[in-house]
Amino acid sequence: METPSEPEESLYGIDDISEKFQALLGAIDQHVRNLASQTEKSVSGTRSKVDQELEDVDKEIARLKAVMKTCDDLEMEFTKIRHIGEIAEDFVRRLKAVENGLK
C-alpha cells in the first residue's frame, strides 16, 4: 500500500533524481579510483627513474673520486720529480765546484 508521500515523491521525480545521484556518485568514485591508480603508477615509475638516476650519480661520484685520487697521486709524483731535479742541479753545481777546485 502506498503511503501518501510515495506518489508525491514520484511525482516530483525524487526517485529518478536519487537513482541518477547514486549513479553519479558511483561514476565519481570510479573516476577517483582510476585517478588514484594512475597517480600510483606515475609515482612508482618516477620513483624508479629517480632511484636509477641516484645510482648513476653515485657511480659517477665514485668514478670522479678515483680520477681525483689519480690526479693527487700524479701531483705527488711530479713533486718528487721536481725535488729530484733540484737535488740533481745542486749535485751538478757541487761537481762543477769540485772540478773548478781541481783545475
From TrEMBL:
GO cellular component terms given for this protein: BLOC-1 complex; cytoplasm
Localization annotation: Cytoplasm
UniProt keyword list: Cytoplasm
Family matches, as InterPro entries: CNL1
Cytoplasm recorded as keyword: yes
GO biological process: endosome organization
Family, as annotated: Belongs to the BLOC1S4 family.
Function: Component of the biogenesis of lysosome-related organelles complex-1 (BLOC-1), a complex that is involved in endosomal cargo sorting.
Listed name of the protein: Biogenesis of lysosome-related organelles complex 1 subunit CNL1
